[in-house]
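dumping this here before i forget
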Amino acid sequence: MEKYTVLVAEDDKAIRESIGIYLQNSNYNVIYSEDGEDAIEKFKNNKVDLIIMDLMMPKLSGEAAIVKLREESYVPIIILSAKSEDYDKVIGLNIGADDYITKPFNPLELMARVNSNIRRLYDYQKSGSEDKKYIEIGNIKLNTFEKTVFVDKKEVKLTSIEYKILELLMKNTNRVFSIEEIYELVWNEPAIEAKTVTVHIRRIREKIEIDPKRPMYLKVAWGLGYKFVDPHRRS
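structure:
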């Protein structure tokens, strides 16, 4: 079994080491960091498969660190923060995080989120060899092997969650998925935080649509959910 590495960026030593114990007991390698600048350096100098990032850290905040990391990588990032308001969660997801857990947290829930993100991104990449390699609708082309997306032949960078949502919808053109269905299929867990799906949908639109406010592809079915349509195909 492959052993994955998790970077824990948290300035509170007790919390940092506590998380490390749970990760090590679950067969993960652990790298520790106590500020945002060090987290970026540790990431650059090590093969990191997932990051747990506190927001309120010295030298460089977690938010700023995530923005810098997203300039060069789409490794899964789970935000760990004492900020529990929906607004703060939306901000965290908008800057590129994949998941968000508030303090105080249940260590078992944190481990479940870690396992889910690892499984979704890495284990999934090893499976599905019989799937169609390319899905091309209009000017959008998705490579299911390399997990890349191109719009007008130019690569568009998506987070792992954004990619999975887009792949799900493009593989099921015209089918309407409720936000609960999308959450359960992509996160592979009960729809506890289903409303975060709308944040990711908005970010996907900003990256693939010419006019995100008047989407051609990723459309809402009012009161029902979302669907991906081919604007050039006659119904």
